[in-house]
Amino acid sequence: MGEWVIGAFINLVGSIAINFGTNLLKLGHIEREKHSTLDSDGTNGKHSLKPIVHYHSWRVGILVFLLGNCLNFISFGYAAQSLLAALGSVQFVSNIAFSYFVFNKMVTVKVLVATAFIVLGNIFLVSFGNHQSPVYTPEQLAEKYSNITFLVYCLILIFIVAIYHYIYRKGENLLAVSGQDNRYWRMLLPFSYAIVSGAVGSFSVLFAKSLSNLLRLAMSNGYQLHSWFTYSMLLLFFSTAGFWVKIIKEL
Predict the structure, then answer these.
(1) What separation in angstroms does the CA of 89 have from each of 24, 62, 185, 195, 237?
(2) Which stretches of 88-227 are DSSP H helices?
(3) Which among 120, 82, 91 has a CA at the least distance from the CA of 206?
(4) 109/115 Cα distance (integer angstroms)
(5) Which of 38, 25, 84, 71 is nearest to 206 (CA)?
(6) Separation CA 42–CA 211 (nearest Å)
(7) Rounded-to-integer distance, Cα 251 and Cα 69, Å
């Protein structure tokens, strides 16, 4: 059994755990709002909300969410990022089960058909995708990061993220102030949100893959992790991952 199989399995478990944790976090916020409404004693205003950490579902959810991310981080050391990133779509499949059992939401035929296509795509991906995961030295990684094509791509993507993040904030503020249901902004906001979260999330995965590569190199060849490149990857990873978690919490 190749190492990519181990990486794919760990990633699948991690992705499902992330989705389960996210649903538990959402459940915690729903319970918080519900208790606030019940405690209002029939008045129109709501009482001050309790801290979210008081709710058991939220505490369990954050632990499961962190565990899933740790598993995904470990999986990057065993399989190609192109394979693992696509396998992350299994969250859409698991979300159907969690939505049905946790939130009692009905599953439509369209959702089932879309899920079937996701499963089919993952089968093709695992069968014919890249199964190689070479280990690069810090010098090789630094050379790839300094490639002019990659740098131009990063600049363009940062520019796009900045624009759509501004659009999202502006639309969110306009809807909050006006209180009206603007069809234009209702369509543009989810699109802008997806662009920003997807781009930032992909960068965090890239930096996580690089860190996982360095850890794998350290365990196999005795590479010393305390170098400028390692610290740079750590800074970039925590910056992008922190920003990604922040915008995910706003969903």
Answers:
(1) 19, 20, 27, 16, 21
(2) 90-102, 109-128, 138-145, 148-178, 183-221
(3) 82
(4) 10
(5) 84
(6) 53
(7) 19
Question: Domain-by-domain residue ranges, the chain?
Answer: 1-133, 136-251
Per-residue pLDDT in tens (0 to 9) along the chain, 251 residues: 577 788 888 888 988 888 888 888 888 878 887 877 665 555 545 456 677 788 888 889 889 988 988 888 888 777 777 777 777 778 778 888 888 887 778 888 888 888 888 888 878 877 777 667 777 888 888 899 999 999 999 999 999 999 988 888 888 887 777 766 677 777 888 888 888 888 888 888 888 888 888 888 887 777 777 788 888 988 998 888 888 777 666 65
Answer yes or no: are the C-beta atoms of 73 and 208 closer than 8 Å. yes
- Alpha carbon distances (Å) from 38 to 24, 33, 46, 71, 84: 21, 9, 9, 39, 44
- pTM confidence score: 0.67
Tokens describing residue 48: 């001050």
Q: Which residues, other chains included, contact 111 with Cβ-Cβ below 8 Å and sequence gap of 6+?
A: 96
Question: What is d(CA 10, CA 5) in angstroms, rounded to the nearest whole number?
Answer: 9
- The tokens describing 82, both together, are 């192109």
